[in-house]
Design a protein that fits this description.
Elements: H1 3-17, E1 22-25, E2 30-31, H2 40-68, E3 71-76, H3 90-110, E4 115-120, E5 135-136, H4 146-159, H5 167-179, E6 187-191, H6 196-209, E7 212-216, H7 219-231, E8 239-243, H8 253-262, E9 269-273, H9 275-282, H10 286-293
Parallel strand pairs: 1-3, 2-5, 3-4, 6-7, 6-8, 8-9
Helix pairs in contact: 1-2, 2-3, 6-9, 7-8
Length: 294
C-alpha cells in the first residue's frame, strides 16, 4: 500500500458513490517488545502502518472534504494511546499517541472547513488484533525482560479471544456519532470505586460535555443499576467508563461481573481509565474531551 493506491481507492470511491462523508482510519497492528529489543526495522514498520498509513489517507481525502465543506474523519488510536506505562508495548503505544496528536492537530486545522476529526480510544475488542499476523512479538527477545514476557503471554494466552468488547457495537457507536453531529445525547455510566473524589471528578467531566451520567461505586452496584434500568424500561447505557488501572487482569473484574450477569451480547461499549487518565482528561477543554471520548 502506498500513496498512489490510497489515492486510487479514494477516487474510485468518489466515482461510484459521488462523494465521501466519513473516513475511518483503522489500519494497524500490534508490535510487542521492549524499546531495547526491537530493531529499527521493526519499530519503523509499526509506525509506517499505524501512523503514516493514516496520514496518507488524510492527505489524499482532505481536498475532497475541503471542497464540499463537510466530512468526518475517525482516527482509531487505542487505550494504549491514552496510557503507556506497561512493558513491551512502548513502540505500539508511541504509534497510538502519535495518532492522538495528529488527530488533535487535524481537528483544529479542518474545523474552518466544516470537517470534524475524532480520535477513538478502543480497549480490548474481539477482533483478530491479537492473532498471528496482527500481533508481532520481538524477533530478538532479551531474557532479562521477564515482566515484558509475562504481559505478552497474558495477551496471547488469556486475553486473546476473551476480549469483552463487541466490534459491531463499536462500529454502531461511530455511526451514531457521525449521524448526530454535536448532539451529546449518549448516556454514560461511570464506576468510581467508592472514591468520592474520583466520583466528583467524573461528574464534572460529564457535566462539561453535556453528558447524562450515573455514578456507581462497585461492580455489584453497576449490575444492580443496569438491571434496574432494564426492569423500569429505561434507556440502557451506550457506554461504560471503568475506573481501573490496565492492563492488569484485575482491571477486567467489573466488566466480567457484568458480562456474567447480563450476557456478553448486551454489553455496551467499554472504556477503561486509570487515575492518570482522568487527571489528563480534566485538564483538557470540552471540545478536546469530546474528541477523546467519542
Amino acid at each position: 500500500i502506498n500513496e498512489q493506491s490510497v489515492e486510487k481507492a479514494i477516487n474510485d470511491t468518489i466515482t461510484k458513490f459521488e462523494k465521501i462523508d466519513v473516513v475511518v482510519n483503522n489500519a494497524g497492528y500490534g508490535q510487542a517488545g521492549t524499546l531495547e529489543e526491537l530493531s529499527d526495522e521493526e519499530s519503523r514498520k509499526n509506525f509506517d502502518v499505524n501512523v503514516f498509513g493514516a496520514l496518507n489517507v488524510i492527505r489524499k481525502v482532505m481536498p475532497h472534504l475541503r471542497a464540499k465543506k463537510s466530512g468526518h474523519i475517525f482516527n482509531i488510536s487505542s487505550v494504549a494511546g491514552f496510557i503507556g506505562n506497561f512493558p513491551s508495548f512502548g513502540i505500539y503505544c508511541a504509534t497510538k499517541f502519535a495518532v492522538v496528536g495528529l488527530t488533535e492537530a487535524l481537528s483544529a486545522e479542518a474545523k474552518a472547513f466544516g470537517i470534524t476529526a475524532t480520535v477513538v480510544y478502543p480497549g480490548y475488542f474481539r477482533t483478530n488484533f491479537l492473532d498471528e499476523g496482527s500481533f508481532s512479538l520481538p524477533k530478538k527477545p532479551i531474557s532479562d525482560y521477564a515482566e515484558a514476557r509475562a504481559i505478552e503471554k497474558l495477551h496471547t494466552d488469556e486475553i486473546r479471544g476473551n476480549q469483552a468488547g463487541d466490534p459491531e457495537k463499536a462500529a454502531g457507536v461511530l455511526i451514531k456519532i457521525a449521524a448526530q453531529e454535536n448532539q451529546n445525547q449518549t448516556l454514560f455510566v461511570f464506576i468510581a470505586e467508592d472514591d468520592p473524589v474520583d466520583a466528583e471528578q467524573l461528574k464534572q467531566i460529564a457535566r462539561s460535555l453535556g453528558w447524562r451520567s450515573e455514578v456507581v461505586g462497585s461492580s455489584e452496584d453497576l449490575v444492580k443499576a443496569y438491571i434496574t434500568r432494564q426492569n423500569n424500561k429505561l434507556r440502557a447505557p451506550d457506554a461504560i467508563i471503568v475506573d481501573h488501572q490496565i492492563p492488569s487482569k484485575g482491571g477486567f473484574s467489573a466488566i466480567s461481573h457484568l458480562v456474567a450477569t447480563i450476557g456478553r451480547e448486551h454489553l455496551p461499549a467499554v472504556l477503561m481509565l486509570s487515575s492518570h487518565n482522568k487527571d489528563s482528561m480534566a485538564s483538557k477543554d470540552s471540545e478536546h474531551l469530546i474528541n477523546h471520548f467519542l
